[in-house]
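Render this sequence as a predicted structure.
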Amino acid sequence: MKKTFKGASIVAIAAMSASTIIAGVAGAAQGDGKKGDIDLVSPTASIAFGGSSFSAPFVTFMANKANKGAYVNPNATFGTDSAAGSGDGRSGVTGGTYQIGFSDQPMNLAAGTLPSGVNVADYTQIPLALGGAVVAYNLPGANNLKLSASTIALIYNGKITKWDDNAIKATNPGVSLPNTTITVEYRSASSGTTYAFTDYLARATQGKTPTGASSAVMEGSGKLWGAGTTGTVAPASNNAAMATQINGTVGAIGYLEYSYLLVPGNHIQAAQLQDAAGAYIAPTLTNIGNAATAALKTITTENFSITYLPGKNVWPFATYTWAIIKNVQTDAAKGELAVKFLDYFVQGGQLSASANGFVALPKAIQTADHKALAAVKDSTGKVLVSQKK
């Protein structure tokens, strides 16, 4: 059953013109990272952040001043991104451990992503990074396998346990498939990639398996995946761990963010998946970007899914990572650094998206993010990032 959430569009909170992100300071545009960019000037401060392992490669890149295109504020010090999962990002920022929490889904009561006792109105949530996830596997000699959503669901439900199963053969005629046991990789903690995975399967199978999205451990539709009791399974703590395990286990299958395919030394294969029109397509940055284009006018903190959207060559397993930050920053220095880091990330930082395996945020999202960050203030009510035009 398809979930639909209604809410005010994130895009609607700002004018659609890209000119609204421009702030002329010493000849530089705000958020472009060039000399004079006011986002690169803040009090000396150190901040902590963490959460989604989906966005961790991009976040880590942006926080490393040695990288061209990274955030080079000389007064900024960043802790290591925990990459412990979206649940960690949400609980970390609401619990005060992080100045910024990263989650592949925004906090939302209806979606089950709002920590208990938290008032969502106390937080600003913005799309930070746009990426695609893949169904990855390790089966030498069988590249670019075509896997339907129903077949993937049957594998995770423990109904298909061998790679030469007739269901896999049916979509891969002429491919020599071995009688190798399938090792089902899953996330061992609350995971935004798991949420997107179950959401994709629910939509692509019209709610047959599973019936709803969930970020819980080895869960689909509120129940344990059947592979957890009838098949060979292996837990992974985050995207990086799952990539390592798939890379080292012949016969493994799992789901992870596209950029992990690009890590030197990884030899992970990615399955072709069906778009909503039924055509099998490969994961490419262009196809992933098509998912954002299809959802652009409807993306909100309540209607945030961009999986299995209508259209040709629209990658069905895509998601945004959202940055979550408290509206009132009791430590003004940390708050100013945090909000300026985000403001640069969603503008000039997007020039580094493709090099890290992500798609640059649509200009309308960049504009909306910049305007939304004006909601973040210190305890005196001072806005911490300039909204100059």
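Summary. Residues 288 and 315 are 5 Å apart (CA to CA). Confidence is low (pLDDT under 50) at residues 1-27.
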